[in-house]
Amino acid sequence: NQINIIDAFEDGNISEYSGSTGNVNIVNSPVKSGSNAAQILEGNNLIYSPTENGLDNYPSQGDVFRWNTYIRNGSRPIFAWGLQDSSNYYYLQYDEPKSTLRLYKVDAGTESELSSVSVTFEIGAYSETEVEWRTNGRQLIKYFDSSGSSRATIDYTDTTFSSGGVGWGEYSKS
């Protein structure tokens, strides 16, 4: 199943999300396409949408899904999937200050770094990330720059979560 963009925030709100919703602004610039984007304030902020909470698509094993991320100087944005609740999910962190793309798992509130790769991020530009989440738990994560060129890949297998909600955030920790 191909899921193109998880949420482009074109509805102009974050009613499908819980968590640090007071630390999110819907903006009309910069945007990748369309009219809106979510801007998550710096700090340790996560908004999340459990399955069946209003988004059109939620990824599960067997899906290929994509999202766009805007990288600011010094930022550490994240995208979460396989989200069971606020204490159980996978997430990808774009650690701009350390030029590292990191895959984490949060299981029963305990965070573990599963894999990482060095990458030079484009500041002030949107990038695209694709996850091919295979039915055996293998996650093939591809990071593309604003021109669509492949810049980094993470290939990792973990079977803790097989489906779930999604989340967006900014984690100031590294």
What topology emerges from the helices and strands here?
Elements: E1 2-3, E2 18-19, E3 24-27, E4 37-40, E5 45-49, E6 63-71, E7 77-85, E8 88-95, E9 100-107, E10 110-118, E11 125-133, E12 138-144, E13 150-157, E14 165-170
Parallel strand pairs: 1-6
Antiparallel strand pairs: 2-5, 3-4, 5-14, 6-11, 7-8, 7-14, 8-9, 9-10, 11-12, 12-13
Word description of this protein:
The chain is mainly β and 174 residues long. 0% of the residues lie in helices and 52% in strands. The model has no long low-confidence stretch (mean pLDDT 93).
Output the keywords.
five-stranded mixed sheet
What is the 3D shape? globular
Gyration radius over CA: 15 Å
Residue windows where pLDDT falls under 50 for at least 5 positions = none
The major pleated sheet works out as:
7 strands, antiparallel
Q: Could you say which structural class the secondary elements and strand pairing correspond to?
A: mainly beta
How are the strands ordered across the major sheet? 2-5-14-7-8-9-10
In whole angstroms, the N-to-C terminal distance is 33 Å
* Helix and strand pattern: EEEEEEEEEEEEEE
* Secondary structure tally: strands: 14
> Approximately what portion of the residues adopt beta-strand conformation?
over 45%
